[in-house]
Amino acid sequence: MTCAQRFNDFLNRINYEQIYELPYNNNPLMVASHARNFSTAVPKLSGYSLLKWNVEHEVQRLRIDKSTIHPATKFIWNLKLSVSQRNQFIALANNANDINDRVKLVNNNDTVNRIIQIDSPQETNNLFELNFFNGTKFNDDNDNFNYLTLPLGSQYDSYHSSNQLFKLNENI
Known about the structure:
By secondary structure, the chain is mostly helical. Helix content is 67%, strand content 0%. The protein contains nine helices and no strands.
């Protein structure tokens, strides 16, 4: 059996009602949760990717070669779905993406709040590590800014630099 024959056989055997059904009964919370739980990096969903989930289920159910998934999804998306069906898949994907974006924002804020609560300084023997882990203080008593940011041998003289800037502004 050739590749084209296997592909046509698959298209003849699939349950199109299952393919056209929106994942998780059109529940964006469930779709968003599925995307977060079954992937290391939460992907941006598209209507096409949701249709692909349905095609993957059919491929598994019929025990067909997985290489059929992409061409079958492309064929169904472009030639079998109506515009309104495509729009329903797209709307569900957009709603799930909105939910996942809000979850990411909450998680990021929680992480930042936890970092802010760390109040015990990290002890190191290296000035760079000390400033990296505990933050750099930019004041006259602690001139770590020059040490950490300027090339070796460079000197930053804040007095002369500010005078030059002042003179520059006078000339303008």
